[in-house]
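Input structure tokens:
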């Protein structure tokens, strides 16, 4: 049986070391979470799978890792400082504050049901900082609310240092921060989260074609790379477009409580390079931008054949890595009845995503020869460089299997007393619990074959 609520995953994450509540020993801090030993591994594997698809498997995309803290002017001209806010409503009866667009009933308080509400007022989503000895507490910089804007301001740097013809892209993976009014859904909406974003620069007039292409490319990645069935997704066009957008749609995953966004695909036209470039009057900017009197660089592209200089349009793909991890775990989660009063919880992750790729289990922890044989197998597997390999030495084979089922380990390798005689071990497969016995010398090849 799959996970019926997010609580199934929340309990597993705490029990098995995937995700913990941030600042837990002091009562926590809403919208913040800490990633434990297996959560770190799963997040890393999702990141690496994304980076491989977006950078290593292509010739037209470069990577970037920009600063978390940026000059305030960057956020002024991107439109964030003046317009990056949500409408906040407060209940006069109980003091509860709510995002108006997330209220169950806009006329009643979600907490107490009271109807005496304040008028909506803007609530700044960016987290301000006071930097420098003379700042005196005044906000003079911001923690970035997304990774996209620092990509645009580095457009010319990358184009000059690693030349590309259009179309080409720039990607970033990293932390972003938003002063969320009401974090929700476990790691679905947080104040500190991780994004994997691509900005793809294209010639004006081809932007809608590329927007459609990237919608399909990204959906295929969710299905093929993460192993989530196609029927668990849908495209949801935006009913109301953001000020920068020409077209926008979300890839939505079917969570236990309904479909919700895991990635956005946006046609941002020439808004971003137009907003941050100097000499704006030299370009026929289609988007509506505010006049920029502070930029020191022309963020334009010069056609090598015609010499024409223009501002490319941008197609953006923006994925929440934390949401991807949640979707992956929900999709992989299964509670199985094994009969005779026995059951198990198993994460049927794609082997490449599994936090632990293989566990080596000596059947008895007090037999030195078994431990020595197990250690040799572990060393051989670690030499493959395929990820984390664990030694289990608790002495209870059933409990070891159940623990590794829950964290998604694809293969358990049991070293038993017979191993000392025939130099063979038992491989137990996670998904169907089948077992095969193979020579120790064949273990690395077999494991690598299964992991892929």
């Amino acid at each position: 049986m799959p996970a019926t609520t997010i609580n199934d995953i929340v309990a597993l994450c705490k029990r098995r070391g995937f995700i913990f509540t941030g600042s837990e020993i002091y009562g926590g801090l809403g919208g913040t979470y800490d990633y434990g030993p297996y959560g770190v591994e799963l997040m890393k594997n999702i990141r690496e799978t994304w980076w491989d698809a977006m950078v290593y498997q292509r010739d037209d995309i470069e990577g970037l890792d920009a600063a978390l803290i940026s000059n305030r002017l960057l956020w002024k001209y991107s439109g964030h400082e003046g317009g990056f806010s949500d409408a906040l409503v407060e209940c006069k009866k109980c003091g509860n504050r709510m995002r108006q667009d997330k209220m169950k009933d806009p006329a009643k308080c979600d907490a107490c049901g009271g109807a005496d509400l304040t008028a909506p007022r803007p609530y700044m989503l960016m987290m301000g900082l006071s930097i420098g000895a003379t700042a005196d507490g005044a906000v003079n910089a911001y923690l970035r609310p997304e990774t996209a804007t620092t990509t645009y301001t580095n457009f010319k740097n990358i184009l000059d240092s690693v030349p590309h013809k259009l179309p080409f892209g720039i990607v970033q993976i990293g932390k972003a921060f938003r002063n969320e009014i009401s974090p929700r859904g476990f790691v679905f909406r947080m104040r500190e989260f991780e994004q994997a974003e691509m900005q793809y620069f294209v010639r004006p007039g081809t932007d809608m074609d590329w927007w459609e292409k990237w919608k399909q490319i990204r959906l295929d990645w969710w299905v093929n790379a993460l192993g989530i069935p196609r029927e668990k997704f849908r495209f949801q066009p935006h009913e109301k477009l953001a000020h920068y957008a020409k077209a926008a749609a979300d890839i939505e995953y079917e969570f236990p409580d309904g479909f919700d966004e895991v990635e956005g695909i946006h046609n941002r036209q020439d808004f971003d390079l137009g907003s941050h470039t100097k000499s704006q009057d030299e370009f026929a900017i289609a988007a509506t931008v505010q006049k920029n009197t502070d930029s020191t660089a022309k963020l334009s592209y010069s056609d090598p054949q015609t010499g024409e200089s223009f501002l490319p349009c941008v197609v953006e793909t923006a994925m929440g890595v934390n949401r991807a991890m949640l979707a992956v775990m929900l999709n992989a989660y299964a509670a199985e009845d094994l009969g005779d009063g026995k059951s198990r919880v198993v994460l049927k992750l794609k082997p490449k995503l599994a936090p632990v790729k293989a566990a080596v289990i000596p059947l008895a922890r007090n037999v030195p020869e078994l431990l020595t044989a197990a250690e040799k197998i572990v060393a051989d597997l670690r030499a493959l460089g395929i990820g984390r390999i664990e030694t289990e030495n608790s002495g209870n084979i059933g409990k070891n299997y159940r623990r590794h089922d829950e964290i998604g380990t694809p293969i358990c390798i049991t070293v038993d007393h017979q191993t000392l005689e025939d130099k063979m071990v038992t491989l137990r497969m996670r998904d169907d619990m089948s077992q095969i016995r193979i020579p120790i010398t064949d273990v690395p090849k077999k494991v690598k074959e299964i992991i892929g």
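The chain has a mean pLDDT of 91. The longest strand covers residues 192-202.
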